[in-house]
Amino acid sequence: MDPLRMSHLSPRKKRPRQTGALTASSPQDIKFQDLVVFILEKKMGTTRRAFLTELARRKGFRVENELSDSVTHIVAENNTGSDVLEWLQVQKIQASSQPELLDVSWLIECIGAGKPVEMTGKHQLVVGRDYSDSTNPGPKTPPIAVQKISQYACQRRTTLNNFNQIFTDAFDILAENCEFRENEDSCVTFMRAASVLKSLPFTIISMKDTEGIPCLGSKVKGIIEEIIEDGESSEVKAVLNDERYQSFKLFTSVFGVGLKTSEKWFRMGFRTLSKVRSEKSLKFTRMQQAGFLYYEDLVSCVTRAEAEAVSVLVKEAVWAFLPDAFVTMTGGFRRGKKMGHDVDFLITSPGSAEDEEQQLLQKVMNLWEKKGLLLYYDLVESTFEKLRLPSRKVDALDHFQKCFLIFKLPRQRLDSDQPSWQEGKTWKAIRVDLVMCPYERRAFALLGWTGSRFERDLRRYATHEQKMILDNHALYDKTKRIFLKAESEEEIFAHLGLDYIEPWERNA
Question: Which residues are catalytic, by number?
Answer without folding.
Answer: 342, 344, 433
